[in-house]
Design goal:
Strand content: 15-25%
Shape: globular
Structural class: alpha+beta
Helix content: 25-40%
Length: 339
């Protein structure tokens, strides 16, 4: 990045340059003069710029949590001279998916950290007309296909979804629990995995966010792990988070996302899907959670009573399908969607 930074500065000598400290991918900290064109370079190189509060002076003002900087305009809005930033590999389809993963990591009780990201494109599987196992895939979606389409040959039949396409992936390996405490927080104790917000698509439905977005993860023997306590067992369940991004939240998007999750957890995907190491690793996880990241605030958060009812209906429908919704609240920042 240093050579490119120098070349950009020479080329744009009259542009506004803002000196910043940036933690590079190799662990070195460089001082750079940031200009607007740098963000185009980050996108082309599949990099993301993120605030790095651990590298700042703790005595000076700081952001409540680290956020993604998607563009130069957002950078100018939040930047202060003492701020420090870091570059991270994108490992997602775009910056929006990256920001949603950061929000999941920042949720209270979340087992994930931003370093848990893996390349999600290795899981994707398109339902092309001549894809492997087309007949069995059509049979899998038989109950969700219109009667008119069922009369069409499988090679030309339109399916309810176009394939499995995730924009983000995080994997948390099971590890030994550090804190040995039999006390479980009241929030964890009252959040059962059988509640609407607690069911999970996967082999064992034992991970869920509470109503306020707190992630509660059960370990391999059934004890809850949250920010207020862990079970006295040795091992925490391994868990995967699969994220998709959506322009809006509506019934159609929720239904299609639920079908995608159902197909991904099926034996049909295991038989004909991608046989990559990442795919095998994700399917071997004890639990899998499916997230929807909506690129705008879901309707009804601030509006009329009718809009609020519509919002509640959509979020309840997502809970019914074990989908956890995060919505965009500002540039580079997402939050758990609550009614």
């Amino acid at each position: 990045m240093q050579r490119d930074s120098y070349a950009a500065i020479v080329r744009h000598r009259n542009r506004r340059k803002i000196p910043v400290r940036v933690l590079q991918l190799n662990g070195a900290v460089f001082r750079e003069n940031l200009i607007e064109e740098f963000f185009t370079g980050y996108r082309n190189r599949r990099l993301a710029l993120m605030t790095h509060t651990p590298g700042q002076d703790s005595r000076l003002p700081r952001l409540p949590k680290d956020i993604i900087i998607p563009d130069y305009k957002t950078f100018l809005q939040i930047h202060q001279p003492h701020f420090m930033y870091r570059l991270l590999p994108l490992l997602s389809s775009d910056v929006e998916a990256f920001a949603a993963m950061q929000a999941i990591c920042a949720s209270p009780g979340s087992p994930f950290v931003i370093e848990d990201r893996l390349e999600s494109q290795l899981l994707n599987y398109r339902f092309s007309k001549l894809c492997a196992g087309r007949d069995k895939i059509c049979e899998f979606f038989k109950d969700y296909t219109t009667p008119e389409e069922l009369r069409m040959p499988t090679a030309t039949r339109n399916l309810p979804i176009q394939g499995v396409c995730f924009q983000g992936l995080m994997v948390h390996e099971g590890r030994a629990a550090v804190k040995q405490n039999t006390t479980i927080s009241h929030r964890a104790a009252t959040s059962s995995p059988t509640t609407p917000s607690g069911s999970v698509v996967g082999p064992s439905a034992t991970a869920c966010p509470a109503r306020d977005g707190t992630l509660l993860v059960k370990n391999a023997t059934g004890g809850l792990n949250s920010e207020n306590g862990t079970s006295p067992t040795r091992r925490v369940s391994s868990i995967a988070a699969l994220i998709t991004t959506h322009d809006v939240l509506n019934e159609s998007a929720i239904t299609q996302r639920a079908l995608m999750a159902k197909f991904f957890d099926s034996d049909v995907y295991n038989q004909f899907g991608t046989g990559t190491v990442v795919s095998t690793k994700v399917r071997s996880m004890d639990e899998r959670m499916h997230f929807m990241a909506v690129k705008r605030i879901c309707v009804g958060r601030k509006g009329t009573v009718e809009n609020m009812r519509g919002r509640a209906h959509l979020l309840k429908l997502a809970e019914k399908h074990s989908l956890h919704v995060y919505e965009k609240v500002s540039e580079g920042e997402y939050a758990y969607a609550v009614t």
